[in-house]
Amino acid sequence: MTFRVNFLIQCISSVSWSAMNYGFFEIVFSYTGSIGADSGWGKYEYFVFLATTWLINSLIQTFCMPNAQEFSELIRTGNLDFALLKPIDTQFLISFQKVEWSSLTNGFMGLGVLIYSLSQLASRSPTPLVLSPLTIVLYIFYLGCGAAILYSVMISLAATSIWLGRNQSLYNFWFYITNFSRYPMEIYARSWGLPLFVLFTFVIPVLVVVNVPARLLADPLQSQDTWKWPLAGFALFATGMSLFVSRLIFKAALRSYRSASS
């Protein structure tokens, strides 16, 4: 924020991107009432999904992305040596030493779209949406789970810089992988999309990042929902495993690191 004009330009760019993205789906829903027959993702349900995507991505881009992008520079310049010598966990220090405040703009946009969409769902007839305090708590909790999964993917990609020397394609890999999480998982669960559904649900679980919290809020869990409960439970398992595996990858990468003085 030291360079104020640059900060304002970044904020304006983020707002413009979000507004165009929102406008695009307004156009889409002017031609159809839902994304997929019997998927449950109507216009405002999907806008809850879209807002959830922005909230999670804004957290990652604010607190993690700028640090992960600079990890290869720490290796190239030898400044990783200084991080290793500090009396604090290296992964924590590398992951959260800088904050990109302008990226929070998308989060505020997402919060606005979320409140608007929920108000529309709450006033619909004949089945208005009713949110309980437990639903809101679960939503916030699974937002954290989604952010943790994306962080795990990001730190794993960043750790490969130790083996590759420089990983300038980090953001490209990140975009390609997380791009699948921006759409409801139901659209993949058929035809040739099934391999993608399996890969990005059970191997690299990016599909549960947004789908679980958005579905919890737009269509809260009921006792008769036989598939939503296992999905919510799997999201917890996927979060724990993602953090565990990414920790193993980061530790293995550090063991391969040769300091600038060696």
What does this structure look like?
With 262 residues, the chain is mostly helical. The protein has one domain (4-255). It is built from 13 helices and no strands. The protein is globular and about 70 Å long. The mean pLDDT is 86.
Number of helices: 13
- What characteristic shape results from the CA principal axes? globular
Give the overall pLDDT as a whole number.
86
Please state the structural category: mainly alpha
Tell me the series of helices and strands, N- to C-terminal.
HHHHHHHHHHHHH
Termini separation: 37 Å
Which parts are unreliable, with pLDDT below 50 for 5 consecutive residues or more? none
Radius of gyration: 20 Å
Total number of β-strand segments?
0
Tally the structural domains: 1
Tell me the fraction of residues in β-strands, as a range: under 5%
Largest sheet: none
Summarize, please:
It is built from 13 helices and no strands.
Key phrases:
262 residues, mainly alpha
Topology overview:
Layout: H1 4-29, H2 43-63, H3 65-69, H4 71-77, H5 80-85, H6 90-96, H7 104-122, H8 133-159, H9 161-164, H10 170-178, H11 194-203, H12 207-218, H13 228-255
Helix pairs in contact: 1-2, 1-7, 2-7, 2-8, 2-12, 8-10, 8-12, 8-13
